[in-house]
Amino acid sequence: MLSTICAFAQVGINTTTPVQEVHVAGATESVRIEGLNTTNNVDNLGVGSSTRVYADANGDLVLGSSSETIELLLDVENYLVDGNNTNGASVNQILQTGGGNGYTATGIQNDIPGSIFTLTKNAIVEVNYSVSWSVEINSTGRISDNRARIVQTGVYFKKWDPAVPGYVNILTDVDGNFINSGPWCIASNAGGCTEIGGLLAINGQFYNNGHGKHGEHENFQNTGSDYVKLGPGTYYAMFAGQIAVGSTVGSGAAKMYLGSGSSDELQIIAHYYY
Amino acid sequence: MKQLIRYIVLLASSIALGQVGIGTTSPQKELHIAGTTSTVRIEKLNSVNSATFNDGVKIAPVFVDGNGDLTLDSGFGTGGVEPLNFLLDIPDFIPDDPYNPLGFNGSGTVVNNPIGVSTAEGQIISIPLTIPQAALIEVKYGVTVLIAGTDMQAGPPTAYTVGGETSTIFTYFRIDLNSDGLSAGEMAKKYGQKAQMYSTYPGGTIGYPYMNSQGYLSLPPGNHSIVFYGVVNDSAASFTSVGFGGTKDYLKIRVYN
After folding, report:
1. Is B202–A147 a contact, with Cβ atoms under 8 angstroms apart?
2. CA-to-CA distance for B226 and B218, rounded, in angstroms?
């Protein structure tokens, strides 16, 4: 039985001048740890795969599973309050604009506390959504002018700021870059832009109708998917939308309602760096 | 049985060995740590000494830096070690002037579908993409479109498309390996296809809805290009001009390696 305990300040393998405590020199040299191999460790993905290595609280090298790197922060089937709400706290009406940056921050969550999520560390955050919308001239009339409309939607994040205190729109990612080359104007009035945000996963589709009583005016969905790098903090997501047309002459202002249908799917996933 | 116990304590010194076995007398690697529950403890990586990246609750991923040193890092910032997978964010990746070549440098953002033609394809932009090692990449994009009945390569739009006629607009991308031009095989493979219809009478909007889609693909190491294309379909009797990327577009590429 050979029992050896050696304590060195620095150990060099294939080198006489170690520059770290353990220095393995040579172009093809490596370190083998049997406690991490596929026979001894169930978290090893096996021959032909590579498995991530982690350090635990002691600094011991260990293997991890998917839960260490990815987390489903939010998975909601019907994120926004339904119906055509024209007033009160749940307003989701968006008035038609001529074009450009005429977004309106809109909609309100069905479950406000359940919409809030916390990132404990930097992450690549993935946003996937499918949001419902409907469009009309008024409660008894549909668009009938055959003029193309664009219905555009996007998501922006609000982050808790203890200095306010309150939630404020975030404009930049964790590296300090404006999100999607923003900032974006997400609410405006006749005097100009009243609110800016960092719009993500922007998606648009055309709508057109030529009969004031017939033709589908609801049951539409916009879908989007995007990534953004966010730092630690407490957040929630909101929607902004826009309906645009070239000319309103003779047609009046159309209105759209975001989240008016029964299904507004929102998934927010964190892919952690560390 | 001969028992040999040695204690060697050398302070402020170093030792050079050929191969080292711990728990084994026949090391298979330069450093071989045997035993079914064996591991290595590196105190620099523990929750006291690397509190920023190791919170002591969740285990922290270990990376290898450019020197081969084991390290913990966030991968963020200029001093950060790149993480195992990272995100390339290329905001507004298409020059904004849809009336090329009158304004900006760059070309190909306008695709015309002239009279006598029912399907027209044009290149929007080619983006260089350097892949350091074989990787799976994920591409998500959003491209704006602007639609008119007059040639936007010659000037700003002056007329709508023919009233009541439906046209369709496609976007997708191809991969040019080694940036040496698209081969027949590379032309045949389209990723992230997206299409939508357009129809209006005068007074409708002409832009900009976002066309977005995504795709995964595997790439070998090298300096490649991701090439975006636009397609316009209409009646052969009509003229349709589409400007791709006239306002803020986005391109996100995740690299998994």
Report:
1. yes
2. 13
Q: Which pair of structure tokens corresponds to residue A193?
A: 């832009």
* pTM, 2 dp: 0.81
Give yes or no for B257 touching A (CB within 8 A).
Answer: no
Both tokens of residue B231? 């397609």
CA–CA separation, A183 vs A106, rounded Å? Answer: 18
Subunit contact B205:A174, Cβ cutoff 8 A = no
CA distances from A28 to A15, A20, A33, B67 (A): 14, 18, 16, 13
Residue B74's pLDDT band (boundaries 50, 70, 90)? low
What length does chain B have?
A: 257
The CA distance from A99 to B207, in Å, is 8
In whole angstroms, give the CA distance from residue B12 to residue A148.
78
Per-residue model confidence as pLDDT tens digits over B106-164: 334 899 999 999 999 999 999 999 887 888 999 999 999 999 999 888 888 889 999 98
Q: Could you report the predicted ipTM of this complex, rounded to two decimals?
A: 0.81
Chain A residues 46-75 with CB within 8 Å of chain B: 52-62, 64, 68-69
Contact list, A177 vs chain B (CB under 8 Å): 89, 91
Look-up: residue for tokens 């920023």?
B52
Please tell me the distance from the alpha carbon of residue B59 to that of residue A51, in angstroms, as a whole number. 14
DSSP SS3 for A149: strand
Do residues A269 and A126 make contact, with C-beta atoms less than 8 angstroms apart?
yes
Euclidean distance between CA atoms B206 and B254, whole angstroms: 32
CA distances from B186 to A1, A29, B228 (A): 63, 38, 13
